[in-house]
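re: ur question from earlier - yeah i can do the single chain one, its not a big deal. heres the input i used so u can compare w yours
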Amino acid sequence: KKPYPKLFQHTNANMLIQCHWPDTLPAKKRILVTGGCGYIGSHTLVSLLDPHTTSETNIQYSVVVVDNLANSSHESLRRVADITNLDGGFTMNADGTGGQDPNGRLVFRKVDCCDEPALRGVFEEFAPQGGFDAAVHFAGLKAVGESKLIPLKYYQVNIGATWNLLNLMEEYGCRSIVFSSSATVYGVAKDEKAKLKESDEVGVTITNCYGRTKYMIEQILGDFHGSHALLREQQGGKEDGTSAKDWSVTILRYFNPAGAHFSGKMGEDPNGTPNNLMPFVAQVAVGRRPHVTIFGNDYDTPDGTGIRDYLHVMDLADGHVAALKYMDNNNNNTNNKSGNGKLNVFNLGTGTGYSVIDMIDAMGKAVGKPIPHVVGPRRPGDVTVYVADASLAKEEMGWEAKKNLEDMCSDLWSWQTNNPNGYP
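and the output i got, formated as tokens:
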């Protein structure tokens, strides 16, 4: 084999990144990413394909993205290829059903995870190439308000897609999954001002159908993981007469993702009216909407508006890489901890809360002018404070948020000004 270079220089967005490679060739792993064209999914692709990730983990990831593009654009994949400097870039097929880069590091298949035959086709396609080492599962409907209006659709899509995925992963021997869950599973906390821990009660006081689907999927993953231990016990330590690999499951409960990639090339591009605060604020700042409506200013907080834990989307993306590494049996986790063969749940947040007014003011500073806003009535189900205790993720996976509120706002503004109408 040719000697591997000790120093790799990657130039992007007017920055020179020097990555010092280890002495051994990196392991190659293929990851299935469902819903990978969306906001969090596409930023996670950047983290997975970033040369710096390869140098740090000694793993070269390739990704296969499946997405039905119902609330996303395949343009995000072209931006991923550009940012990560993939040779030859990313090209869509003429019929729009797929695409990839010349080296197969970034592959796309237009597939709905609720369509079992189509999803099976993806597993069949890559089985001769070694299949998938793990899956990161983002795919699903995610609008809290909408979920109250069409609950059956949310149960059908979110749970059905996960059911298909788990069955196919089991059938094709892929037994590692990172699940995109949500802090909504905590519902209304008994002590609203206390930081939420993974050990806190979940499922009981959830206020919307979206959150309940996340909670139900967490329960399904727990039951599924536990069933294999029971099977081994009943069959003398083996499953179906084989020594199959244990399932590794990592559930990530996100708090409030915000921001965009620092290049300004990628960000959140919601269809229609944004459901989340910060993309709405950004659209007001760029002139697409007249003002932000603050839903209630009579909460028991310093300025009367609700407080949330906002997390930079690139920190969140890095959390998925940390989870994959944590579940890898051959990882070199600096904490000497391993999630291989285990079921783990982690909060991903900063541990710091900001009010709605704090966020609007911070965005105003990034923009250079005040953001127009008005006060409206409270929304049913909104709580006073929602902040993470993310210490377990640091203790076990070695992950912690690195970016601050200023980074979130400046990167979001860079995305919005460079792409005032979102992706083309």
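Residues 209-234 form the longest helix (26 residues). not sure if urs matches, ping me
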